[in-house]
Write a structure and sequence with these properties.
Mean pLDDT of chain B: 90
Number of domains of chain B: 2
CATH topology of chain A: ABC transporter involved in vitamin B12 uptake, BtuC
Oligomer: heterodimer
Number of helices of chain B: 8
Low-confidence stretches of chain A: 278-286
Strand order of the largest sheet of chain B: 5-6-7-3-8-9
Largest interface: A-B, 33 and 41 residues
Structural class of chain A: mainly alpha
Largest sheet of chain A: none
Mean pLDDT of chain A: 88
Shape of chain B: globular
CATH superfamily of chain A: ABC transporter involved in vitamin B12 uptake, BtuC
Number of strands of chain B: 9
Helix content of chain B: 25-40%
Number of domains of chain A: 1
Low-confidence stretches of chain B: 234-240
Order of helices and strands of chain B: EEEHEEHHHEHEHEEHH
Strand content of chain A: under 5%
Helix content of chain A: over 70%
C-alpha cells in the first residue's frame, strides 16, 4: 500500500507536480469562496481565456509566457471591474464580447505560426508534469502574495461580499476592494495555468467553494472547507491521473465535480434532517 | 452636518435641486415627501454613496468619503443582500465593527460588548445564532438596525426603517432612536408615517426635490406643506 502511495514520488517531476497541485488546489479554492459568493465565476473563466492571447503574444515575442499571460489577465480583470462599476453594458455581455474576442486573438495568432507549437496547448489544458523548478518558485511566490493580500483584506472582503452598499457607507472603500480581488483572481489564474490550464481553471475556482457552500452556513467554515476540498481533489486527482494515465487537469476537475454532487446530496440530507429535529444551528465562529 | 445648494442628478433627472439642510448633534430630523421625491437620494448622498453634481455637503466638516471609517451608519430601505450568504445574525451585526478595525486587530472584548448591546437593544440576542435566511421581514430589519447601532457611528441614517414592521418593532425602534438621540447622536431618517412624526423627531422636513418646509414637526404638519404634495400626487395618480 505504501508503495502504491509513494510510487509516484520516485520521480522528481512528480514531486514538483504534487507540490504544485497542492498549492494551486488550495489557492484556487480559497479565493473561490469569494468567486462563488460574489458571483464572479464567469469573470474567472473570462480572465483565464483572455490570458491565452498574452501567452501567444509572449511566445511570438520570445518572452516568458507567465509575463504575457499576467499582463493580459490583470489588464482584463481591471477592465472588467471598470465596466462592472461604470459601464452601461451588462457585465455578462461585456465579458462575453471582450474575453471571447481576446481568446480568438490568441487562437488566430497561434494558427498563423509556421512551426505549430505544442507547448501552447499545455496552457489550454495544463501540463502539470512539466512544472519546472523555476515555475514552482513562481507558483510559491505568487501564491504567498495572493494569500497575504487575502489575509490583509479579510474583513473588507467579507463585508463588501455580503453588503457592498452599507460597507461603503460605513467608510470601507468597496471599489478598491473589488479591484484588488480581481487582480488577486488574475494572479491566481496565472499561477494555475500550467497545472490545470486555461479551459479548466474556472472549475477549480468555483467547484470546491460551491461544494463547501452546500455543507456549511458559516463563512469561516466555508473558507476552511473549500481549501481542504480543493487541496484534496488536486492531490487525489493527480494520483488518479498517474495510475489511470489520464490528463491530470481533467482528472482533478472531474474529481472536484464528483465531490460537488456528493456535497449537494449531503447538504440536502442535512438540511432536511435538521429541519425535522429542529436542531439549533452551530455557534458563530467570528 | 451641513448641506447648501446640494444638487444631485441621475443623468438628466434632477433628484435633489439646490437643497439646504443642517443637522445638529443630538437631533432627530425626519424627512417626509412623496415617492420619488429624492428622500432616499438625500440619505445616499450624505452617506457618500452618490456624488453631488454641485453644492456643498459637509459632514463633521469634511466630505462624506473623507471621513474616518465607521463614522456614518446607514440602513437602506431595501437590503439588497443575498439571504443565502453564509452568515448568522451575530456575524452580520459583527461586521459593523470591521470599518474601524485594522487588518491585524482581534475582535476585542469591546467589539463583542458593542455587538451584544446592539442585539439586546433590538431584542435580537436570542436569535443571534440563526442563519439570516431564517428571519422574518421585521427581524431582518431589526438585524440591520442592530448592525448600524453596533457600529457606534457619529451619524445615523435610516431610510424608512418602519416600513413593513409590526407595531411592537416600530415602538422598539422609536425608543432606541430617541435613546441614541438623547446621548447626542444626530439621526437623519425618512418616513411615511406623519401621524407619529412628533413622537419620533425634533425637526421635520418636507422634501420634494427641494425643501418645502422645515421646522418643528407640529408646525410643519399644520402648515399644510405636505398636504399640498399629497393632493398633487393623488391627482396625478388619479389622472393616470
Amino acid at each position: 500500500m505504501s508503495d502504491l502511495i509513494l510510487a509516484p514520488f520516485q520521480f522528481e517531476y512528480m514531486q514538483r507536480a504534487f507540490l504544485a497541485a497542492l498549492i494551486v488546489g488550495t489557492l484556487c479554492s480559497t479565493i473561490g469562496v469569494y468567486v462563488v459568493l460574489r458571483k464572479l465565476a464567469f469573470i474567472g473563466d473570462g480572465i483565464a481565456h483572455a490570458s491565452f492571447a498574452g501567452v501567444v503574444v509572449a511566445y511570438i515575442r520570445g518572452l516568458d509566457y507567465y509575463v504575457g499571460a499576467a499582463i493580459v489577465a490583470i489588464v482584463t480583470a481591471l477592465g472588467i471591474g471598470f465596466v462592472n462599476r461604470r459601464g452601461n453594458v451588462s457585465l455578462d455581455t461585456a465579458i462575453g464580447v471582450l474575453f471571447t474576442g481576446a481568446f480568438a486573438l490568441g487562437v488566430f495568432l497561434m494558427s498563423r505560426l509556421q512551426n505549430y507549437a505544442v507547448d501552447l496547448q499545455s496552457f489550454l489544458f495544463g501540463n502539470i508534469l512539466a512544472v519546472s523548478r523555476g515555475d514552482l518558485i513562481l507558483i510559491v511566490v505568487l501564491s504567498a502574495l495572493v494569500v497575504a493580500s487575502m489575509v490583509l483584506l479579510y474583513r473588507p472582503l467579507l463585508y463588501t461580499s455580503f453588503d457592498p452598499v452599507v460597507a461603503e457607507a460605513s467608510g470601507i472603500n468597496a471599489g478598491f476592494v473589488s479591484y484588488a480581488l480581481l487582480v488577486l483572481l488574475a494572479l491566481t489564474i496565472i499561477v494555475s495555468l500550467e497545472t490545470v490550464g486555461i479551459v479548466l481553471v474556472a472549475a477549480l475556482l468555483v467547484t470546491p467553494a460551491a461544494s463547501a457552500y452546500q455543507l456549511t452556513r458559516r463563512f469561516t467554515r466555508m473558507l476552511a472547507l473549500s481549501a481542504v476540498i480543493g487541496a484534496t481533489c488536486a492531490v487525489l486527482g493527480l494520483y488518479a491521473s498517474y495510475y489511470l494515465q489520464a490528463a491530470s487537469g481533467a482528472t482533478i476537475v472531474l474529481l472536484a465535480t464528483a465531490f460537488f454532487f456528493v456535497s449537494m446530496f449531503v447538504g440536502r440530507l442535512r438540511r432536511t434532517t435538521s429541519r425535522a429535529t429542529g436542531a439549533p444551528s452551530a455557534p458563530s465562529l467570528l | 452636518m451641513r448641506a447648501s445648494a446640494l444638487t444631485v442628478r441621475y443623468g438628466d433627472v434632477i433628484a435633489l435641486d439646490k437643497l439646504d439642510l443642517t443637522l445638529e448633534t443630538g437631533q432627530a430630523l425626519g424627512i417626509v415627501g412623496p415617492n420619488g421625491s429624492g428622500k432616499s437620494t438625500l440619505l445616499k448622498t450624505v452617506a457618500g454613496l452618490v456624488a453631488p453634481a454641485s453644492g456643498v455637503l459637509e459632514v463633521f466638516g469634511t466630505s462624506p468619503r473623507a471621513l474616518e471609517p465607521g463614522t456614518i451608519a446607514y440602513v437602506p430601505q431595501v437590503e439588497a443582500v443575498d439571504w443565502s450568504f453564509p452568515a448568522s445574525v451575530y456575524d452580520v451585526v459583527a461586521m459593523a465593527r470591521f470599518p474601524r478595525m485594522g487588518p491585524f486587530a482581534r475582535f476585542s472584548k469591546r467589539d463583542r460588548a458593542a455587538v451584544k448591546a446592539a442585539l439586546e437593544a433590538l431584542r435580537m440576542w436570542d436569535l443571534r445564532d440563526r442563519h439570516i435566511s431564517q428571519l422574518s421581514g421585521g427581524q431582518q430589519q431589526r438585524a440591520f438596525v442592530a448592525r448600524a447601532v453596533a457600529q457606534e457611528p457619529r451619524l445615523l441614517l435610516l431610510d424608512e426603517p418602519t416600513t413593513g414592521v409590526d407595531a411592537a418593532t416600530e415602538e422598539a425602534l422609536r425608543e432606541l432612536v430617541r435613546g441614541l438621540v438623547a446621548q447626542g447622536l444626530p439621526v437623519l431618517m425618512t418616513t411615511h408615517d406623519l401621524e407619529r412624526a412628533a413622537d419620533w423627531f425634533d425637526r421635520l422636513m418636507v422634501v420634494d426635490h427641494k425643501v418645502l418646509a422645515d421646522g418643528d414637526p407640529e408646525t410643519v404638519l399644520d402648515s399644510g406643506a405636505y398636504a399640498g404634495i399629497r393632493e398633487h400626487t393623488h391627482t396625478h395618480g388619479h389622472l393616470r
